Amino acid sequence: MDGLDEIYNDLIMEHSMNSYNKKKLDKADYCELGHNPNCGDEISLEVKLNGNIIEDMAFTGHGCAISQASTSIMIDTLKGKTVEEAKEIVKTFIEMIKRETKNEEDLEKLEDAIAFRNISNMPARVKCALLAWHTIEDMLNK
Amino acid sequence: MNIKDDFAILKNRNITYLDSGATTQKPRQVINAINNFYENTNANPHRGAYTLSMDATEVYENTRKKIAKFINAKSSDEIIFSKNASESLNLIAYSYGLDNLNKDDEVVLSIMEHHSNLVPWQFVTKKTGSKLNYMYINDEFEISDEEIESKITEKTKIVGITHVSNVLGTINNIQKIIKYAHKKGAIVVVDGSQSIPHMKIDVQNLDADFFVFSGHKMLSPLGIGVLYGKKEILNKMNPFLMGGDMIEYVYEQETTFATLPNKFEAGTQNVEGVVGLGAAIDYIEKIGYEKIEEIENEVVSYAREELSKLEYIDLYITPNKENHSSVISFNIKGVHPHDTASILDTEGVCVRSGNHCAQPLLRSIGIDSTCRASFYLYNTKEDVDKLISGIEKAYNMFKKYIKL
Protein backbone atom coordinates (compact mmCIF):
# COMPACT_ATOMS: atom_id res chain seq x y z
CA MET A 1 0.00 0.00 0.00
CA ASP A 2 1.60 3.24 -1.09
CA GLY A 3 -1.13 5.61 0.01
CA LEU A 4 -2.05 6.39 -3.58
CA ASP A 5 -5.60 5.10 -3.28
CA GLU A 6 -6.24 7.41 -0.34
CA ILE A 7 -5.47 10.35 -2.58
CA TYR A 8 -6.67 9.23 -5.98
CA ASN A 9 -9.98 7.99 -4.62
CA ASP A 10 -13.35 8.04 -6.38
CA LEU A 11 -14.42 11.36 -4.92
CA ILE A 12 -11.28 13.16 -6.04
CA MET A 13 -11.17 11.45 -9.41
CA GLU A 14 -14.78 12.28 -10.21
CA HIS A 15 -14.36 15.90 -9.21
CA SER A 16 -11.12 16.26 -11.16
CA MET A 17 -12.09 14.63 -14.40
CA ASN A 18 -15.74 15.55 -14.60
CA SER A 19 -16.68 18.47 -12.39
CA TYR A 20 -20.10 20.10 -12.52
CA ASN A 21 -18.47 23.17 -10.92
CA LYS A 22 -16.22 23.72 -13.93
CA LYS A 23 -18.11 26.40 -15.84
CA LYS A 24 -18.62 30.14 -16.11
CA LEU A 25 -21.21 31.89 -13.94
CA ASP A 26 -23.77 34.04 -15.71
CA LYS A 27 -23.24 36.91 -13.34
CA ALA A 28 -20.21 36.82 -11.07
CA ASP A 29 -19.49 39.50 -8.49
CA TYR A 30 -15.83 38.60 -8.04
CA CYS A 31 -13.22 36.77 -10.07
CA GLU A 32 -9.74 35.80 -8.92
CA LEU A 33 -6.92 34.06 -10.78
CA GLY A 34 -4.73 31.45 -9.13
CA HIS A 35 -1.48 30.26 -10.65
CA ASN A 36 1.34 27.88 -9.78
CA PRO A 37 4.10 29.11 -12.09
CA ASN A 38 6.30 26.06 -11.56
CA CYS A 39 3.73 23.57 -12.74
CA GLY A 40 1.60 25.78 -14.96
CA ASP A 41 -1.63 25.09 -13.09
CA GLU A 42 -4.09 27.91 -13.60
CA ILE A 43 -7.57 28.43 -12.22
CA SER A 44 -10.04 31.24 -12.39
CA LEU A 45 -12.54 31.33 -9.51
CA GLU A 46 -15.87 33.13 -9.76
CA VAL A 47 -18.10 34.03 -6.86
CA LYS A 48 -21.63 35.38 -6.72
CA LEU A 49 -22.71 36.86 -3.40
CA ASN A 50 -26.17 37.38 -1.98
CA GLY A 51 -25.60 39.85 0.81
CA ASN A 52 -23.05 38.13 2.98
CA ILE A 53 -23.73 34.64 1.64
CA ILE A 54 -21.81 32.87 -1.10
CA GLU A 55 -24.73 32.11 -3.37
CA ASP A 56 -22.85 30.52 -6.24
CA MET A 57 -19.31 29.65 -7.25
CA ALA A 58 -17.60 28.13 -10.29
CA PHE A 59 -14.15 27.70 -11.80
CA THR A 60 -12.35 27.34 -15.10
CA GLY A 61 -8.74 26.51 -15.86
CA HIS A 62 -6.45 23.56 -16.11
CA GLY A 63 -4.13 21.55 -13.93
CA CYS A 64 -3.52 18.21 -12.32
CA ALA A 65 -6.21 16.01 -10.81
CA ILE A 66 -5.43 17.20 -7.31
CA SER A 67 -5.64 20.92 -8.05
CA GLN A 68 -8.80 20.51 -10.12
CA ALA A 69 -10.55 18.26 -7.59
CA SER A 70 -9.51 20.46 -4.70
CA THR A 71 -11.05 23.46 -6.44
CA SER A 72 -14.28 21.67 -7.23
CA ILE A 73 -14.69 20.19 -3.75
CA MET A 74 -13.91 23.57 -2.18
CA ILE A 75 -16.75 25.07 -4.17
CA ASP A 76 -19.16 22.40 -2.88
CA THR A 77 -18.04 23.11 0.66
CA LEU A 78 -18.20 26.89 0.56
CA LYS A 79 -21.43 27.35 -1.38
CA GLY A 80 -24.20 28.63 0.89
CA LYS A 81 -21.80 29.71 3.62
CA THR A 82 -21.34 33.26 4.88
CA VAL A 83 -18.09 35.03 4.07
CA GLU A 84 -17.01 34.67 7.72
CA GLU A 85 -17.78 30.95 7.78
CA ALA A 86 -15.92 30.53 4.51
CA LYS A 87 -12.85 32.29 5.88
CA GLU A 88 -12.88 29.98 8.88
CA ILE A 89 -13.19 26.87 6.69
CA VAL A 90 -10.37 28.01 4.41
CA LYS A 91 -8.16 28.60 7.42
CA THR A 92 -8.94 25.14 8.79
CA PHE A 93 -8.23 23.49 5.43
CA ILE A 94 -4.84 25.17 5.13
CA GLU A 95 -4.01 24.18 8.70
CA MET A 96 -5.06 20.60 8.02
CA ILE A 97 -2.79 20.37 4.97
CA LYS A 98 0.10 21.87 6.88
CA ARG A 99 -0.62 19.43 9.72
CA GLU A 100 -1.17 22.29 12.15
CA THR A 101 -4.49 21.01 13.37
CA LYS A 102 -5.96 17.61 14.06
CA ASN A 103 -9.03 18.83 15.91
CA GLU A 104 -11.68 16.47 14.51
CA GLU A 105 -14.51 18.85 15.36
CA ASP A 106 -12.92 21.60 13.27
CA LEU A 107 -12.11 19.22 10.45
CA GLU A 108 -15.74 18.13 10.18
CA LYS A 109 -16.58 21.62 8.93
CA LEU A 110 -14.54 20.86 5.83
CA GLU A 111 -17.13 18.31 4.67
CA ASP A 112 -15.78 16.45 1.59
CA ALA A 113 -12.61 18.52 1.55
CA ILE A 114 -11.37 16.36 4.40
CA ALA A 115 -10.47 13.91 1.61
CA PHE A 116 -7.24 15.85 1.16
CA ARG A 117 -5.98 15.31 4.69
CA ASN A 118 -3.42 12.72 3.54
CA ILE A 119 -1.95 14.91 0.83
CA SER A 120 0.77 15.87 3.29
CA ASN A 121 2.14 12.38 2.65
CA MET A 122 2.94 13.61 -0.86
CA PRO A 123 4.78 16.86 -0.13
CA ALA A 124 5.32 17.58 -3.82
CA ARG A 125 1.55 17.84 -4.27
CA VAL A 126 0.67 20.06 -1.33
CA LYS A 127 0.78 23.19 -3.43
CA CYS A 128 -1.62 21.61 -5.95
CA ALA A 129 -4.17 20.97 -3.20
CA LEU A 130 -3.75 24.47 -1.81
CA LEU A 131 -3.99 26.46 -5.05
CA ALA A 132 -7.75 27.10 -4.96
CA TRP A 133 -7.81 27.68 -1.21
CA HIS A 134 -5.09 30.32 -1.37
CA THR A 135 -6.90 31.92 -4.28
CA ILE A 136 -10.22 32.18 -2.42
CA GLU A 137 -8.34 33.35 0.68
CA ASP A 138 -6.94 36.28 -1.33
CA MET A 139 -10.38 37.02 -2.71
CA LEU A 140 -12.14 36.95 0.68
CA ASN A 141 -9.52 39.19 2.24
CA LYS A 142 -10.13 41.91 -0.30
CA MET B 1 32.07 -2.93 -15.73
CA ASN B 2 28.90 -2.04 -13.84
CA ILE B 3 28.50 1.72 -14.07
CA LYS B 4 25.58 1.79 -11.61
CA ASP B 5 27.95 0.67 -8.84
CA ASP B 6 29.76 4.01 -9.07
CA PHE B 7 26.56 5.86 -8.16
CA ALA B 8 25.77 4.99 -4.56
CA ILE B 9 22.58 7.06 -4.44
CA LEU B 10 20.86 4.78 -6.95
CA LYS B 11 21.24 1.87 -4.56
CA ASN B 12 20.86 3.82 -1.32
CA ARG B 13 17.51 5.20 -2.39
CA ASN B 14 16.55 2.23 -4.56
CA ILE B 15 15.36 4.49 -7.36
CA THR B 16 14.98 4.44 -11.11
CA TYR B 17 16.48 7.81 -11.86
CA LEU B 18 15.21 9.23 -15.15
CA ASP B 19 15.80 12.93 -14.58
CA SER B 20 19.39 13.40 -15.70
CA GLY B 21 18.23 16.23 -17.95
CA ALA B 22 17.58 18.19 -14.75
CA THR B 23 20.75 17.08 -12.99
CA THR B 24 22.82 13.92 -13.12
CA GLN B 25 23.84 11.81 -10.17
CA LYS B 26 27.51 11.96 -9.20
CA PRO B 27 29.91 9.02 -9.28
CA ARG B 28 32.02 8.06 -6.28
CA GLN B 29 35.10 9.31 -8.16
CA VAL B 30 33.74 12.87 -8.25
CA ILE B 31 32.61 12.84 -4.63
CA ASN B 32 36.02 11.49 -3.55
CA ALA B 33 37.90 14.14 -5.53
CA ILE B 34 36.00 16.88 -3.69
CA ASN B 35 36.64 15.20 -0.36
CA ASN B 36 40.29 14.89 -1.20
CA PHE B 37 40.49 18.55 -2.16
CA TYR B 38 39.15 19.66 1.21
CA GLU B 39 41.37 17.25 3.12
CA ASN B 40 44.58 18.08 1.27
CA THR B 41 44.47 21.15 -0.97
CA ASN B 42 41.89 23.69 0.16
CA ALA B 43 42.97 27.35 0.12
CA ASN B 44 41.94 30.42 -1.85
CA PRO B 45 43.56 30.26 -5.32
CA HIS B 46 45.48 33.28 -6.64
CA ARG B 47 45.59 34.80 -3.14
CA GLY B 48 48.34 33.37 -0.97
CA ALA B 49 52.11 33.24 -1.31
CA TYR B 50 52.25 30.01 0.66
CA THR B 51 52.49 26.52 -0.79
CA LEU B 52 48.95 25.43 0.02
CA SER B 53 47.41 28.37 -1.84
CA MET B 54 49.69 27.70 -4.79
CA ASP B 55 48.58 24.07 -4.78
CA ALA B 56 44.96 25.20 -4.82
CA THR B 57 45.75 27.57 -7.69
CA GLU B 58 47.40 24.75 -9.58
CA VAL B 59 44.38 22.44 -9.19
CA TYR B 60 42.08 25.25 -10.30
CA GLU B 61 44.12 26.27 -13.33
CA ASN B 62 44.94 22.71 -14.36
CA THR B 63 41.23 21.97 -14.55
CA ARG B 64 40.79 24.98 -16.81
CA LYS B 65 43.42 23.47 -19.12
CA LYS B 66 41.71 20.10 -18.91
CA ILE B 67 38.39 21.63 -20.00
CA ALA B 68 40.06 23.52 -22.84
CA LYS B 69 41.48 20.24 -24.10
CA PHE B 70 38.19 18.42 -23.49
CA ILE B 71 36.24 20.73 -25.82
CA ASN B 72 39.26 21.49 -28.03
CA ALA B 73 39.47 25.22 -27.30
CA LYS B 74 42.50 26.97 -28.75
CA SER B 75 43.56 28.33 -25.39
CA SER B 76 42.63 27.86 -21.74
CA ASP B 77 42.09 31.64 -21.58
CA GLU B 78 38.87 30.95 -23.45
CA ILE B 79 37.46 28.93 -20.54
CA ILE B 80 35.59 31.04 -17.97
CA PHE B 81 34.13 29.48 -14.84
CA SER B 82 30.61 30.47 -13.85
CA LYS B 83 27.87 29.26 -11.57
CA ASN B 84 25.98 27.43 -14.30
CA ALA B 85 24.87 27.74 -17.92
CA SER B 86 22.33 30.40 -16.93
CA GLU B 87 25.04 32.65 -15.52
CA SER B 88 27.21 32.05 -18.59
CA LEU B 89 24.31 33.09 -20.83
CA ASN B 90 23.59 36.17 -18.74
CA LEU B 91 27.25 37.12 -18.98
CA ILE B 92 27.06 36.98 -22.77
CA ALA B 93 23.76 38.88 -22.91
CA TYR B 94 24.97 41.66 -20.61
CA SER B 95 28.60 41.96 -21.65
CA TYR B 96 28.27 41.24 -25.37
CA GLY B 97 24.60 41.86 -26.14
CA LEU B 98 24.10 45.21 -24.44
CA ASP B 99 27.24 46.68 -26.02
CA ASN B 100 26.89 45.29 -29.53
CA LEU B 101 23.20 45.47 -30.37
CA ASN B 102 21.78 48.58 -31.97
CA LYS B 103 18.30 49.68 -32.87
CA ASP B 104 16.77 47.47 -35.60
CA ASP B 105 19.39 44.76 -35.18
CA GLU B 106 17.95 41.30 -34.69
CA VAL B 107 18.55 38.50 -32.25
CA VAL B 108 17.34 35.10 -33.47
CA LEU B 109 16.58 32.25 -31.08
CA SER B 110 14.99 28.87 -31.54
CA ILE B 111 11.56 28.43 -29.97
CA MET B 112 12.97 25.47 -28.04
CA GLU B 113 15.34 27.57 -25.94
CA HIS B 114 15.40 27.09 -22.20
CA HIS B 115 14.26 30.26 -20.40
CA SER B 116 17.92 30.89 -19.55
CA ASN B 117 18.77 31.47 -23.22
CA LEU B 118 15.58 33.44 -23.83
CA VAL B 119 14.71 35.76 -20.96
CA PRO B 120 18.14 37.51 -20.95
CA TRP B 121 17.71 38.21 -24.67
CA GLN B 122 14.26 39.69 -24.09
CA PHE B 123 15.85 42.05 -21.59
CA VAL B 124 18.75 42.98 -23.84
CA THR B 125 16.70 43.49 -27.02
CA LYS B 126 14.21 45.69 -25.15
CA LYS B 127 17.06 47.75 -23.68
CA THR B 128 18.78 48.23 -27.03
CA GLY B 129 15.69 48.62 -29.20
CA SER B 130 16.63 45.56 -31.22
CA LYS B 131 14.24 42.80 -32.27
CA LEU B 132 13.81 39.26 -31.01
CA ASN B 133 12.80 36.66 -33.62
CA TYR B 134 12.24 32.94 -33.37
CA MET B 135 12.96 29.88 -35.48
CA TYR B 136 9.99 27.53 -35.06
CA ILE B 137 9.82 23.74 -35.20
CA ASN B 138 8.08 21.65 -37.84
CA ASP B 139 5.74 18.74 -37.17
CA GLU B 140 8.76 16.48 -36.66
CA PHE B 141 9.84 18.65 -33.73
CA GLU B 142 12.87 19.88 -35.68
CA ILE B 143 14.04 23.20 -37.08
CA SER B 144 14.17 22.90 -40.85
CA ASP B 145 16.89 24.35 -43.08
CA GLU B 146 14.26 26.62 -44.66
CA GLU B 147 13.33 27.98 -41.25
CA ILE B 148 17.00 28.71 -40.49
CA GLU B 149 17.50 30.47 -43.78
CA SER B 150 14.32 32.53 -43.55
CA LYS B 151 14.91 33.77 -40.00
CA ILE B 152 18.65 34.51 -39.98
CA THR B 153 19.13 37.61 -42.12
CA GLU B 154 21.60 40.44 -42.74
CA LYS B 155 20.01 42.21 -39.78
CA THR B 156 20.78 39.33 -37.41
CA LYS B 157 23.65 40.05 -35.06
CA ILE B 158 23.27 37.25 -32.52
CA VAL B 159 21.87 33.74 -32.85
CA GLY B 160 21.08 31.76 -29.69
CA ILE B 161 20.57 28.04 -30.14
CA THR B 162 20.39 25.06 -27.85
CA HIS B 163 22.44 22.15 -29.16
CA VAL B 164 19.92 19.64 -27.79
CA SER B 165 16.40 20.52 -26.64
CA ASN B 166 15.80 19.78 -22.95
CA VAL B 167 12.14 19.01 -23.73
CA LEU B 168 12.16 17.27 -27.11
CA GLY B 169 15.63 15.77 -27.17
CA THR B 170 15.99 17.10 -30.70
CA ILE B 171 19.62 17.55 -31.76
CA ASN B 172 19.74 20.81 -33.67
CA ASN B 173 21.86 21.15 -36.75
CA ILE B 174 24.17 23.69 -35.16
CA GLN B 175 26.87 23.16 -37.81
CA LYS B 176 24.45 24.48 -40.41
CA ILE B 177 23.18 27.29 -38.15
CA ILE B 178 26.67 28.48 -37.27
CA LYS B 179 27.85 28.41 -40.88
CA TYR B 180 24.80 30.24 -42.11
CA ALA B 181 24.86 32.83 -39.29
CA HIS B 182 28.52 33.57 -39.93
CA LYS B 183 27.78 34.08 -43.61
CA LYS B 184 25.23 36.72 -42.57
CA GLY B 185 27.66 38.34 -40.12
CA ALA B 186 26.08 37.14 -36.87
CA ILE B 187 27.75 35.46 -33.92
CA VAL B 188 26.33 32.27 -32.44
CA VAL B 189 25.75 31.38 -28.80
CA VAL B 190 25.35 27.63 -28.29
CA ASP B 191 23.72 26.25 -25.15
CA GLY B 192 25.46 22.90 -24.76
CA SER B 193 23.91 21.96 -21.41
CA GLN B 194 22.02 18.99 -22.85
CA SER B 195 24.63 17.94 -25.42
CA ILE B 196 28.03 17.82 -23.75
CA PRO B 197 27.03 15.10 -21.27
CA HIS B 198 26.25 12.85 -24.23
CA MET B 199 28.47 13.74 -27.18
CA LYS B 200 31.99 14.87 -27.96
CA ILE B 201 32.22 18.63 -28.40
CA ASP B 202 34.85 20.31 -30.54
CA VAL B 203 34.33 24.06 -30.37
CA GLN B 204 36.90 24.80 -33.08
CA ASN B 205 35.38 22.35 -35.47
CA LEU B 206 31.91 23.74 -34.74
CA ASP B 207 33.30 27.27 -35.02
CA ALA B 208 30.94 28.35 -32.20
CA ASP B 209 31.54 31.87 -30.92
CA PHE B 210 30.23 30.99 -27.48
CA PHE B 211 29.49 27.58 -26.02
CA VAL B 212 28.09 27.25 -22.49
CA PHE B 213 27.26 24.36 -20.21
CA SER B 214 26.52 23.39 -16.60
CA GLY B 215 28.71 20.94 -14.74
CA HIS B 216 25.90 19.37 -12.77
CA LYS B 217 24.29 17.91 -15.89
CA MET B 218 27.53 16.03 -16.62
CA LEU B 219 28.27 14.27 -13.31
CA SER B 220 29.78 17.29 -11.55
CA PRO B 221 28.62 19.04 -8.41
CA LEU B 222 25.92 21.69 -8.47
CA GLY B 223 26.97 25.30 -8.86
CA ILE B 224 29.74 25.10 -11.45
CA GLY B 225 29.35 26.13 -15.06
CA VAL B 226 31.52 27.00 -18.02
CA LEU B 227 31.54 29.70 -20.62
CA TYR B 228 33.68 29.12 -23.67
CA GLY B 229 34.16 32.15 -25.90
CA LYS B 230 36.52 32.94 -28.73
CA LYS B 231 39.45 34.88 -27.34
CA GLU B 232 39.16 37.76 -29.79
CA ILE B 233 35.54 38.29 -28.76
CA LEU B 234 36.09 37.87 -25.02
CA ASN B 235 39.01 40.32 -25.13
CA LYS B 236 36.78 43.05 -26.50
CA MET B 237 34.01 42.50 -23.95
CA ASN B 238 33.51 44.41 -20.72
CA PRO B 239 33.48 42.48 -17.45
CA PHE B 240 30.14 41.22 -16.18
CA LEU B 241 30.61 40.95 -12.40
CA MET B 242 33.19 43.10 -10.65
CA GLY B 243 35.19 42.57 -7.50
CA GLY B 244 38.24 40.76 -6.25
CA ASP B 245 40.69 39.00 -8.57
CA MET B 246 39.27 40.46 -11.80
CA ILE B 247 41.25 43.70 -11.59
CA GLU B 248 44.71 45.00 -12.38
CA TYR B 249 44.93 48.44 -10.71
CA VAL B 250 42.19 49.99 -8.64
CA TYR B 251 42.23 53.73 -7.92
CA GLU B 252 39.62 55.78 -6.13
CA GLN B 253 37.77 56.63 -9.32
CA GLU B 254 39.16 54.26 -11.97
CA THR B 255 40.01 50.59 -12.39
CA THR B 256 41.89 48.63 -15.01
CA PHE B 257 40.87 45.02 -15.42
CA ALA B 258 42.75 41.75 -15.39
CA THR B 259 43.36 39.88 -18.61
CA LEU B 260 41.51 36.72 -19.61
CA PRO B 261 40.24 34.58 -18.03
CA ASN B 262 40.33 36.40 -14.64
CA LYS B 263 38.54 39.41 -16.09
CA PHE B 264 35.32 37.42 -15.91
CA GLU B 265 35.85 35.68 -12.59
CA ALA B 266 35.11 38.13 -9.79
CA GLY B 267 35.37 37.03 -6.19
CA THR B 268 36.38 33.74 -4.67
CA GLN B 269 35.40 30.98 -7.03
CA ASN B 270 33.72 27.61 -6.55
CA VAL B 271 36.98 25.65 -6.49
CA GLU B 272 35.28 22.56 -5.10
CA GLY B 273 32.98 22.64 -8.12
CA VAL B 274 35.92 23.04 -10.48
CA VAL B 275 37.69 20.08 -8.86
CA GLY B 276 34.52 18.02 -9.19
CA LEU B 277 34.10 19.02 -12.82
CA GLY B 278 37.69 17.97 -13.52
CA ALA B 279 37.02 14.57 -11.94
CA ALA B 280 33.79 14.24 -13.95
CA ILE B 281 35.69 14.87 -17.17
CA ASP B 282 38.21 12.19 -16.16
CA TYR B 283 35.33 9.82 -15.53
CA ILE B 284 33.67 10.55 -18.87
CA GLU B 285 36.97 10.16 -20.71
CA LYS B 286 37.75 6.91 -18.96
CA ILE B 287 34.46 5.43 -20.13
CA GLY B 288 34.63 7.26 -23.44
CA TYR B 289 31.93 9.03 -25.43
CA GLU B 290 31.76 6.10 -27.81
CA LYS B 291 30.73 3.79 -25.00
CA ILE B 292 28.35 6.40 -23.53
CA GLU B 293 26.65 6.76 -26.89
CA GLU B 294 26.43 3.00 -27.25
CA ILE B 295 24.77 2.61 -23.82
CA GLU B 296 22.36 5.48 -24.39
CA ASN B 297 21.52 4.38 -27.88
CA GLU B 298 20.52 0.95 -26.64
CA VAL B 299 18.47 2.23 -23.70
CA VAL B 300 16.81 5.16 -25.48
CA SER B 301 15.96 3.09 -28.57
CA TYR B 302 14.34 0.54 -26.31
CA ALA B 303 12.42 3.30 -24.51
CA ARG B 304 11.23 4.75 -27.83
CA GLU B 305 10.04 1.33 -28.95
CA GLU B 306 8.28 0.43 -25.71
CA LEU B 307 6.62 3.82 -25.32
CA SER B 308 5.44 3.75 -28.92
CA LYS B 309 3.51 0.57 -28.14
CA LEU B 310 1.28 2.40 -25.63
CA GLU B 311 -1.56 3.75 -27.74
CA TYR B 312 -2.86 5.89 -24.85
CA ILE B 313 0.17 8.18 -24.69
CA ASP B 314 1.34 11.15 -26.75
CA LEU B 315 5.06 11.28 -27.54
CA TYR B 316 6.87 14.51 -28.38
CA ILE B 317 9.92 13.20 -30.21
CA THR B 318 11.26 13.41 -33.72
CA PRO B 319 10.74 10.30 -35.86
CA ASN B 320 14.32 10.76 -37.11
CA LYS B 321 16.29 8.73 -34.63
CA GLU B 322 19.62 10.19 -35.66
CA ASN B 323 18.41 13.66 -34.63
CA HIS B 324 17.24 12.54 -31.20
CA SER B 325 19.32 12.52 -28.02
CA SER B 326 18.25 11.00 -24.71
CA VAL B 327 15.26 13.04 -23.55
CA ILE B 328 11.70 11.78 -24.07
CA SER B 329 8.65 13.90 -23.32
CA PHE B 330 5.28 12.18 -23.13
CA ASN B 331 1.77 12.51 -21.73
CA ILE B 332 -0.89 9.97 -20.93
CA LYS B 333 -3.83 11.30 -22.94
CA GLY B 334 -6.29 12.98 -20.57
CA VAL B 335 -4.06 12.64 -17.51
CA HIS B 336 -2.11 15.57 -16.15
CA PRO B 337 1.68 14.97 -16.10
CA HIS B 338 1.94 15.83 -12.39
CA ASP B 339 -0.41 13.02 -11.55
CA THR B 340 1.56 10.64 -13.75
CA ALA B 341 4.82 11.74 -12.12
CA SER B 342 3.40 11.28 -8.61
CA ILE B 343 2.26 7.78 -9.43
CA LEU B 344 5.63 6.95 -11.01
CA ASP B 345 7.26 8.28 -7.85
CA THR B 346 5.43 5.72 -5.75
CA GLU B 347 7.21 3.09 -7.89
CA GLY B 348 10.57 4.76 -7.31
CA VAL B 349 10.68 6.15 -10.84
CA CYS B 350 11.91 9.76 -10.94
CA VAL B 351 10.72 11.77 -13.94
CA ARG B 352 10.20 15.46 -14.29
CA SER B 353 6.82 16.98 -15.01
CA GLY B 354 5.97 20.54 -15.90
CA ASN B 355 6.99 23.06 -18.50
CA HIS B 356 10.75 22.33 -18.19
CA CYS B 357 11.63 26.06 -18.25
CA ALA B 358 10.49 26.20 -21.87
CA GLN B 359 7.05 27.81 -21.81
CA PRO B 360 7.21 29.34 -25.31
CA LEU B 361 8.02 25.94 -26.80
CA LEU B 362 5.16 24.16 -25.03
CA ARG B 363 2.76 26.96 -25.92
CA SER B 364 3.79 26.63 -29.58
CA ILE B 365 3.01 22.91 -29.46
CA GLY B 366 -0.32 23.69 -27.78
CA ILE B 367 0.28 21.97 -24.43
CA ASP B 368 1.16 23.32 -21.01
CA SER B 369 3.24 20.54 -19.57
CA THR B 370 4.72 17.11 -20.17
CA CYS B 371 6.32 14.24 -18.32
CA ARG B 372 9.95 13.94 -19.23
CA ALA B 373 12.16 10.89 -18.90
CA SER B 374 15.83 11.66 -19.54
CA PHE B 375 18.53 9.04 -19.66
CA TYR B 376 22.25 8.85 -18.99
CA LEU B 377 25.06 6.35 -18.92
CA TYR B 378 23.92 4.67 -15.70
CA ASN B 379 20.47 3.82 -17.05
CA THR B 380 19.54 0.35 -18.25
CA LYS B 381 16.74 -1.43 -20.07
CA GLU B 382 15.41 -2.49 -16.65
CA ASP B 383 14.92 1.20 -15.88
CA VAL B 384 12.82 1.49 -19.02
CA ASP B 385 10.75 -1.52 -17.94
CA LYS B 386 10.11 0.18 -14.59
CA LEU B 387 9.03 3.33 -16.39
CA ILE B 388 6.64 1.44 -18.63
CA SER B 389 5.04 -0.50 -15.78
CA GLY B 390 4.68 2.74 -13.81
CA ILE B 391 2.94 4.38 -16.76
CA GLU B 392 0.64 1.37 -17.06
CA LYS B 393 -0.21 1.68 -13.39
CA ALA B 394 -1.02 5.38 -13.78
CA TYR B 395 -3.16 4.72 -16.83
CA ASN B 396 -5.07 1.94 -15.10
CA MET B 397 -5.82 4.18 -12.13
CA PHE B 398 -7.20 6.91 -14.36
CA LYS B 399 -8.67 4.85 -17.17
CA LYS B 400 -12.29 4.83 -16.06
CA TYR B 401 -12.34 8.57 -15.38
CA ILE B 402 -10.55 9.82 -18.49
CA LYS B 403 -12.71 12.08 -20.66
CA LEU B 404 -10.98 12.97 -23.90
Poorly predicted runs of chain A:
none
> CATH topology of chain A, what is it called?
Sufe protein. Chain: A
SS strand fraction of chain A? 15-25%
Number of DSSP helices of chain B? Answer: 14
- Runs of chain B in which pLDDT lies below 50 for 5 or more consecutive residues are none
Q: Name the CATH class of chain A.
A: Alpha Beta
The CATH architecture designation of chain A is Alpha-Beta Complex
Oligomer: heterodimer
**N-end to C-end Cα span of chain A:** 43 Å
The Rg value of chain B, from CA coordinates, equals 22 Å
Estimate percent helicity of chain A. 40-55%
Helical residues, percent of chain B: 40-55%
In short:
The complex is a heterodimer of chains A (142) and B (404). Chain A has 142 residues and is an alpha+beta fold. Chain A has helices spanning 4-7, 10-17, 65-78, 83-97, 104-108, 126-140, and strands at 30-36, 41-50, 53-62.
Question: How would you describe this protein?
Answer:
The complex is a heterodimer of chains A (142) and B (404). Chain A contains 6 helices and 3 strands, in the order ααβββαααα. With 142 residues, chain A is α+β, with helices and mostly antiparallel strands. Chain A has one domain: Sufe protein. Chain: A, CATH 3.90.1010.10. The longest helix of chain A has 15 residues, at 83-97. The model of chain A has no long low-confidence stretch (mean pLDDT 91). The mean pLDDT of chain B is 97. A 7-stranded mixed sheet of chain B has the order 2-8-7-6-5-3-4, with helices on both faces. Chain B is an alpha/beta fold and 404 residues long. Chain B has helices spanning 8-12, 28-40, 51-70, 85-100, 119-128, 145-151, 174-183, 203-206, 231-236, 271-287, 289-308, 337-346, 359-365, 381-398, and strands spanning 16-17, 79-82, 106-110, 131-135, 156-162, 187-191, 210-214, 225-229, 247-250, 255-257, 313-315, 327-332, 349-350, 352-354, 370-374. Chain B has 14 helices and 15 strands. Chain B folds into 2 domains: 3-27 and 288-393, Aspartate Aminotransferase, domain 1 (Alpha-Beta Complex); 29-285, Aspartate Aminotransferase, domain 2. Classes of the chains: A alpha+beta (142), B alpha/beta (404).
